[in-house]
Predict the structure.
Amino acid sequence: MASEKITVLIVEDEPAIIELVTFSLREAAWQVASVHTAAEAWEYIGRRPPQLILLDWMLPDQTGLRLLARIRADRNFAAIPVIMLTAKSMEEDKLAGLNQGADDYITKPFSPRELLARAKALMRRNNPEMVEASLSAGPVTLDPVSNSVAIDQARIDIGHAEFKLLKFLMAHPERVFSRSQLLDKVWGNHAVIEERTVDVHVLRLRKALKQAEGLIKTVRSVGYMLSEK
Ligand code: CA
């Protein structure tokens, strides 16, 4: 029931660079995954889209630029921020990368501090919800940056689905939502999820909230709401 962390994918064939990047980004408490080729990267992204991609220009199987074009052409992944890593410092290469849809560009050798600063700036720009202020309701606080929930400052265990549901309800307090509205807003209208599933997650959410479970109200024959009243 670990809360979901921000994952950064490094696509790079030089172990020393991977090590440097991993070291730099863990400081931000982000999870870092690494792959060495464009093919492995594409496979990884399809399985579990990361929140940020650091993409080397020169990869063993194809150029990072081609992989970038592929990512940008797929509507499922087009919004993932990408920073190109490269030894090239020519202005025209930089422009080619940015024209293909890179969000930023960093030239090797770079300092870990610089990389972290650029990555953080990009995340703030692309994921404003990640820098949102904490939400609170009664004794419950939800921190969207660390994806954590606390009751009276004591962190609780909460599943990913329950976290998303709680975040949505806390962002819209005192408003009733039907099961189908919650499915649409929280789960993005996946056909595989039935309305009954909402009840299951509400049940789990109440259990996770322990003494604060009363915040989640059932509104008979309508749906659910978060209310401090
Ligand atoms: Ca390389």
